[in-house]
Amino acid sequence: MTTVIKLISKSGDSYELPYDAACLSQVVKDAQPEEDGEVDDVEISKVESACLAKVVEFLKHYHEDPMTEIKTPLEDNNFEGVVKQEWYRNFVTGIDRSLLFELLMAANFMSVQPLLDLACLKVSDELMGKSPEEIRVMLNIPKMTAEEEATARREYRWIFSDESPTAPPPAAAPAPAPEG
Hints:
The protein is mainly alpha-helical. The protein has a domain at 4-127: Potassium Channel Kv1.1, Chain A. It has ten helices and three strands. The chain has helices spanning 19-22, 26-30, 49-64, 79-82, 86-93, 97-110, 113-127, 132-138, 146-155, 157-160; strands spanning 4-8, 14-18, 42-43. α3 packs across α6 (97-110) and α6 packs antiparallel against α7. The longest helix has 16 residues, at 49-64. The chain is elongated, with a radius of gyration of 22 Å.
């Protein structure tokens, strides 16, 4: 007989799944008493119902068909080339961006590393090739005031330069010693 556990969302909805599948989450494992062998329900107080339902769907599927590890450096330069299993690609492709971000945060909170890796990869894939303004809008980052932008341009010149958008400037050479 398979042991079943209930995960309870922030709003009190409960989702049943095999205990072994739920144990992919370190939070679930850590919530269980060590000695009596009983399985306690676990409140996942920071995760809303719709998101927890998706997490449970992931955990159940992963238990039956584990996702191939996402290794770095990435094996390909696109999402489909890295995530070869169709179910996992579809799992994060067919959802809206806000739920994707909620999944990422839930995976982080619940310590579900494969889901965190998958969600992070999907987010990075969506950001690839976007302008800074498009990224700002996608990530819901407020627009900087003129004063904040001036400060950022002064303190982080390398970000705004055309020389190398990904690397900080080389360290300045020390000033020559005075002669004399």
